[in-house]
Design goal:
Blueprint (H helix, E strand, L loop, with lengths): L9 H7 L2 H30 L6 H4 L4 E8 L2 E12 L4 E9 L3 E9 L1 H15 L7 E3 L14 E3 L8 H6 L3 E9 L3 H19 L2
Length: about 200
């Protein structure tokens, strides 16, 4: 049997010989970790001032982790507050996705969706969080917005909210920040985090 020769493009050959690309990528990821560590301190300060967050979600430390393959690209993620069980989720997740964006999401499932759902529904119907995105797709671990899975809250008719909420097993609200806003990302994410905290206490 004739063996297939593995072909490589000129661009692939150029990149594989350039160690600087990976070293620069590693340096960027380290700086994202540093940014998330600063955010973790800010998130904890804001959370300590709220009586409306589940105790079990804030008594554990923020968790920062990384991976190399969300849709083929590196990422860094931080969960805080965070509580995950087989049936329930309460988490605020901050994400850096290489080549795309920062995001921050409120993710509720099970008992937490039931506890906070009505409060959130009334706030959204009243026009709060209008620039945020509501995930309507069925994959709660999808972290990137798509036309068929996300709706901008300000564009959802008030008359649609009740039926929309009834069909949701989980509730996920997200904001997305372009990576070019790196210099302002810490302040923006802290502000969005505070918006979530305020939403939950309405």
């Amino acid at each position: 049997m004739e063996r297939t020769k593995i072909q490589i493009s000129e661009e692939e050959l150029r990149i594989m010989q350039d160690a600087g690309i990976i070293l620069t990528k590693n340096a960027v990821i380290e700086k994202v970790y540093q940014l998330f560590a600063l955010l973790a301190e800010g998130y904890q300060d804001l959370s300590s001032q709220s009586i409306h967050l589940p105790v079990e979600s804030i008594r554990v430390a923020p968790k920062i982790s990384r991976g190399e393959n969300y849709k083929g690209l590196p990422y860094v993620v931080m969960d805080y507050p965070r509580y995950f069980s087989a049936s329930s989720i309460f988490a605020i997740r901050t994400l850096f996705w290489w080549g795309h964006f920062f995001s921050i999401s409120l993710h509720l499932r099970g008992s937490y969706r039931n506890i906070y759902g009505k409060t959130i529904l009334e706030a959204l119907k009243a026009g709060e969080m209008g620039s945020w995105w509501l995930q309507t797709g069925s994959d709660e671990w999808q972290h990137h917005p798509q036309e068929e899975t996300h709706l901008e809250i300000s564009k959802i008719p008030t008359s649609n909210w009740e039926s929309l909420f009834e069909g949701m097993e989980f509730l996920k609200l997200s904001q997305f920040i372009p990576l070019k806003q790196w210099e302002d990302a810490e302040g923006i994410l802290l502000n969005y985090f505070d918006q979530i905290i305020q939403l939950l206490k309405n």
